[in-house]
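dumping this here before i forget
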Amino acid sequence: MRIHLSSLTLHPYNRRWLALVVVAFVLALMGFYTITEPGHLEHPAVLTGADWLGYAVCHRITERSFTIAGRQLPLCARCTGMYLGVAVAFAAFWLTGRMRRTELPPLKLLLVLGGFIAIMGVDGVNSYLHFFPNAPHVYTPHNWLRLLTGMGTGLAMGSFVFPALAQTLWRQYVRLPMLGTWAEFGQLVLVAGIVVLLTLSNQPEILYVMALVSTVGLLLTLGSVNVILGLILLRRDGRVVNWWETAVPLILGILFAIIELSAVSIIRFNLTGTMTGIPGL
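structure:
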């Protein structure tokens, strides 16, 4: 019996799913090791680095953050939801082969995504007013609401940033919307809902994974913006032909994101002297 090498080659979609499964397994294993080994959770190098990155964009108020066995996550509940949403959107578009699509969703879906952002804005204002006892309060804020509204905004951010990134990178792209139908939108929301429920399960190993994935979402967001602005300013946009050629701009974009976030965190820490909360509040 002769076996052709081509029959052993995984389809691109299968390779993407396999890569995702491997990454998820490694993160879960890291989380289990960190949670179960005495002393590892207090000073985990990976989470400490994530703290510094998250500190650049997040207030990191302890009461408004999820915790792993008393240890605060790198991002507050709302920011965790936002950047988990970006990571979910990027992963969904990648796994379903929409990496070269360059169009925004149609108007009906844009309005829904815009509504997600507006809802987070309302929840954010209501939550902020609770810093002032005499201010009007519409309802009592909760971390699960912050996570949920943040997730909606993250899905919108990912749906806006990803097509802009594709249009900036690729020489040959596909003029189709990143989210074209209600079915595609519903599938994305379903995955996001599962991620929300997993986060709210409050299982230490799962929260560890979500902490890292949300930090990756932050880097993907800022890194993508860096790539878009950098290629346009250098007039090198629209030149990528294959995936190997995306490596340099994407890696540089994420490296610059790490540098930018670290610089902001250092400045903020020198001004405030704290890694958690907002002085005076």
